[in-house]
Amino acid sequence: MIDVTKIRKDFPILKREVNGKPLVYLDNAATSQTPQQVIDVIVDYYSNYNANIHRGVHALSQEATDKYEQARIKIQKHFNAAKSYEVIFTSGTTHSINIVANGFSSLIKKGDEIIVSAMEHHSNIVPWQMLCERTGAILRVIPMNLDGELILSAYHELLSDKTKLIFCNHVSNALGTVNPIKEIIDAAHKVGAAVLIDGAQAAPHIKADVQALNADFYTVSAHKICGPTGAGVLYGKEEWLNKLPPYQGGGEMIAEVTFEKTTYADLPHKFEAGTPNICGGIAMGAGLDYMNAIGFDEIAAYEHELLEYATEELLAIDGLKIYGIAKEKTAVISFNVGEIHPYDIGSILDKLGVAVRTGHHCAQPIMDFYKIPGTVRASFSFYNTKEEVDVLVAAVKKAKSMLE
Ligand code: C6P
C-alpha cells in the first residue's frame, strides 16, 4: 500500500501555490516531478564530483565515471537488459529513436515497408517518415478503433516479407492505452522484422522486461520517471547495435582516428559521442531507485484506483467525453466538454491551480482520427490523491459553467 502523505513530503514542488491556490499537478505524462532524493543527487554531483568522464586519471573524473557506469547498470537491471553495454545514454526518447532511424538508413532499401501504429507520438512518426524519404521505403499504419485500441487483425495483415521495421509505443501518451506489445513483437519477428518500442509513457507505470518482451529496441526518457530533463536511454539488442552505424561523430565514440580512416569504439561508446549529460544519467538512476523503493506493483495498483475514481467522477459531468477507453490503460484521461475548446478549459483550470496539458499532445493523427482539435489531458502519478481528483472535477465544472 502506498503511503501517499509520506510520499508527497518528498516532493518540494507539491507544496507550492499557483495563482494563489495549492498546486494540483496533473501533467505527469508531460514530465514527472522530482523528489528531494533525486535533487540531492544532482546537488551532490555539482558540489562534490563534477568532472568529465572516461577521460581523466584524476580522482573526480574516476568518481564521476564510476557513478555514471553504476547508473547504467542500475538501468540495465531495471529493464533486465542482458548486457550493460546494450544501454546507451541519450538525451531522451526523441534522441533514442533518431539514433535508430538514422542507423537504419543503410539497412533499408526502396520498397521495404515500415509499420507504425496510429497512436504514436510525433517522435515515433517523423523520424521514420524522414527515413522513408531518404530510402524510398513505404510507411504503413496499424489502425485503431474508437475505444483507442490498435486493431491487431489489421496489423497481422500488414505484415509481409517486405516488412523490415515496426514502431509502436508501449503506452499512448494521448490516450493512456497500454498496447499489446508482446503480440506485436512476436508477430514481427515471424517475418524477420525488428521492433522498436517507445517506452516513454510506460516507464513511469510499468517495469518492462526487454528480454521477456524480446524487444529489439526500447526507449525511455528520465524526466518521466522522477529524473531530470535531457537524459534517457536507448536499449538495443547487441546484435542490432553492432549492425547500426554511429549516429554522431566526435570524441569518445572512436577507437582510433587518422585522417585516412577512423574506427569506432565498442558499445556503448559508439553511440555516445561528446560529453554526455553525466549528472542527468546518474540522476536517472536515482529516479529509478526512488520508484523501485516504492515498488512498481504498488504504483500501478494505486494509480489504477485514481484512474477509476477520476473516470467515474469526470463522466458524471454532463457533456464530458473521454477519448481512449481501452481495457488496458494507465492513469491518463483525455477529455473534452461539449464544444468548449480544450485550451479554454485548461486556462481556467490553471487559474484554479490545476496543471493539465491541452492540445494535440504531439499526437496529431490521433486528434484527426477523432476529428477534434485536441483534448484536455489529466495524467496522474503515484503522488496524486483522490482529493486532487475532487479539485480537478470541481474546476472542470466551474470552467464549464463559465464557458457554456
Ligand atoms: N511526451 C507528453 O506530454 P522526449 O521529449 O524525447 O522526452 O519524449 C518524447 C516522447 C516520445 N514518445 C512518447 C510516447 C511521449 O509521450 C513523448 C513525450 C510528452 O505527452 C511531451 S510531448
TrEMBL record:
It holds the Pfam family Aminotran_5. The keyword Transferase applies. CDD domains: SufS_like. GO terms for biological process: cysteine metabolic process. GO terms for molecular function: cysteine desulfurase activity; lyase activity; pyridoxal phosphate binding. Transmembrane segments: none annotated. It catalyses: (sulfur carrier)-H + L-cysteine = (sulfur carrier)-SH + L-alanine. Catalyzes the removal of elemental sulfur and selenium atoms from L-cysteine, L-cystine, L-selenocysteine, and L-selenocystine to produce L-alanine. This is Probable cysteine desulfurase. It comes from Cellulophaga baltica. The lineage of its organism: Bacteria, Pseudomonadati, Bacteroidota, Flavobacteriia, Flavobacteriales.
